[in-house]
Amino acid sequence: MQSIRIFGHFLRLPLILLALLEGIVFALSFFAAAQIRYQLITDSAPFGSGEFAVYMLLVGVVFVLAMASVGLYEASLREGLTGSIIRIALALFLGTLAIGAITFAVPHIEVWRSVLAGTAVLSFLAATLLRLVLYRLEPSIFQRRILIVGDTSVVNFVLAEKARDLLIAGIVPLTEESWENGHGIPKLPHDAPLVHIATSAGVNEILLAIKDRRGALPMEELLDCRMSGIPVLEPQDFVERELGMVKLDYLTPSWLVRASGFDQGTMTLLLKRLFDLAAAAGLFVLSSPIMALAALAIAMEDGFRHPVLYRQVRIGKDGHPFKVTKFRSMRVDAEADGKARWATKNDPRITRVGSFLRKTRIDELPQLVSVLKGEMSFVGPRPERPEFVGHLAVKHPYYAARLRVKPGLTGWAQLKYPYGSTEEDALRKLEYDLYYVKNHSTFLDVLILLQTVEVVLFGKGAL
Prior knowledge:
Elements: E1 3-6, E2 9-12, H1 13-41, H2 49-69, H3 80-105, H4 113-137, E3 144-150, H5 156-160, E4 166-172, H6 194-200, E5 205-209, H7 219-227, E6 232-233, H8 235-243, H9 253-258, H10 266-301, E7 309-315, E8 321-327, H11 352-360, H12 368-373, E9 377-379, H13 386-395, E10 408-410, H14 412-416, H15 423-439, H16 442-458
Parallel strand pairs: 3-4, 3-5, 5-6, 9-10
Antiparallel strand pairs: 1-2, 7-8
Helix pairs in contact: 1-2, 1-4, 2-3, 3-4, 10-11
Keywords: Membrane, Transferase, Transmembrane, Transmembrane helix
Transmembrane segments: 12-32, 52-73, 85-109, 115-135, 277-300
Membrane topology: Multi-pass membrane protein
């Protein structure tokens, strides 16, 4: 992606052009909304063409600034197209509020509320369509070009995972021993300052991938890149952004101490609780017929001889145990010897009805009671059994960190990793849980809930 330098800072040219294009789209949306509204009541606008042009410019500028404020002109949005659509809606809402405040503060500017509302709707439709087309025709606009300085071994697993929107422009090996061309990445000779190599390759960021850094870092060149507006990333920060996980292999106490995130703001927690109460109560009422049918199906399969629900102890926030209630999806003798076992793929203990309930997540619906009681949240790490938590917390010192937030009906790890059936799976899911604990917010919760719909509809991640 080509970059240009403005006042000593490198900006991505395609995204600048996108901002200009969307500014024109927003201005035309205002024009169309105004014309539609005025035609309903009169044949002409109440102001001249000069004033109309000023209003169009105002709307275009304010909406573009609002889009920029929520990160829509940054390459490779982590949330992809779905996240972009949510951000567009938020940006236009903020832009509409800003224009409303301007018209209130400056009496000479008169924009009817109906016209402003119509502008927001048309702008949302146009911007969403534009980005959808660009995602299909020219996805590189939203991709970051990375320059690796060091070796590829640190990021081999990222490349193997096919991190979304990741383009490796090349690698600048600092020693011949560090060069391992396992992924067809072009080798760029270190025959010029790194800032010149980076700009010539059109990269947006530099990944510092060096295991042994004693005397190996070209600090002055890296500092020059950083001061020129080219970010220099550590492997853990790179993995966190590209894969949405906190990689255990690179996790250190010092990184946890200095890393951003882990916010437990009062307002965020209050909004999360209010949302949990409203959503759980509403979903409980709406899903009552489904739960009644599920209970009947379980009872009929067993000839009305066994209970349709089961309760099991799980570990909640800060390690406090609580009991979850779920529809029974396994035989009543699934753990006849009293020994806790992981559920596995094609587990013979799962009944026919239970298999359907698990794939559709209907078996989880009784846990809405735990959400209403405050023991769980809608979004959070999966609540695990105390036997597993105790064992894994001893095996890995960071496992207990996932208990810093309430467990949830759905979560980041459930979306990103298949249903875990081994200790190794649990540790891989821990990497996604740590990402959620570090970055949880209302926006991330909304994104997870939207993606959960896909999980429910297509049975992704279910056993």
